[in-house]
Specification:
By secondary structure, the protein is α+β, with helices and mostly antiparallel strands. Helices cover about 35% and strands about 20% of the residues.
Length: about 240
């Protein structure tokens, strides 16, 4: 991969043209939309899930899954492997992964989707930079281990809790990124069993996350869909 330049800033010419996609047939979508359950509008809710898995050579492959409110798949898209050069790793430093995941891979997959999601959920701290690119609210779903250390409040409390949590282990990437200002200021939200980190500006996006998820907070396991994405990506890589 060669490096292209815009002024003095090297940008990454990622090849995403060979994205693989899957979408629920339109007739099936119409059938699902006609169904009614005890919460009424859950079937019409659209939740987007983005994650990326690292490759042995230092690259990444990303996947974007759209589910309805009862967990049925609507669309799935994934990238081909994206591999930055050694020069790009040096020049971007700690900002490379946030740029790669949040500003390149995720936006490309979201733009390809035909069904717009009301909320986009991620599991990598670095993907929170996606909130600067898309109009939808973006929320980081924290792991149970990190959730146990985080108390509801501002980004400062989340960063402090992450530091505390990492005392007996390797320093969290999220703590380092929050400390150096590479990630936007965030607020923690508790939604049932799920602890979310939501960029606190603009504030209406935090409100939208609460409005969309609160009615069914106890029913959602927002970490589970990421396991589906990882398994699908691993299968795609295995098949080549």
């Amino acid at each position: 991969m060669t490096t292209k330049h815009t002024g003095d800033l090297p940008v990454l010419p990622f090849e995403l043209a060979q994205q693989k996609s899957w979408q629920t047939p339109s007739w099936q979508q119409r059938g699902l939309m006609k169904q009614q359950d005890n919460v009424g509008t859950r079937l019409s809710l659209r939740l987007g899930f983005f994650t990326a898995i690292p490759l042995a050579d230092g690259g990444y492959v990303g996947g974007y899954l759209i589910l309805n409110g009862v967990g049925r798949p609507i669309e799935f898209h994934c990238t081909t492997p994206v591999r930055p050069t050694r020069a790009q790793e040096i020049l971007y430093g700690p900002t490379l992964k946030p740029y790669l995941l949040g500003e390149q891979m995720a936006p490309a997959l979201i733009a390809k989707a035909k069904s717009p999601a009301e909320i986009i959920l991620v599991t990598e701290w670095e993907a929170l930079t996606l909130c600067q690119v898309v109009e939808q609210p973006v929320a980081l779903v924290l792991s149970p281990e990190t959730s146990a250390a985080v108390e509801p409040g501002s980004a400062q409390s989340a960063a402090s809790a992450t530091w505390t949590h990492s005392v007996n282990g390797p320093r969290s990437a999220g703590a380092a990124l929050l400390e150096c200002g590479a990630l936007p200021a965030c607020r923690t939200l508790q939604m049932g069993r799920n602890t979310l980190l939501v960029p606190e500006w603009p504030v209406e996006r935090v409100t939208r996350v609460q409005e969309y998820l609160s009615p069914w907070a106890e029913a959602f396991d927002l970490l589970e869909p990421f396991g589906r994405i990882r398994a699908a990506l691993e299968e795609a890589l295995r098949r080549g």
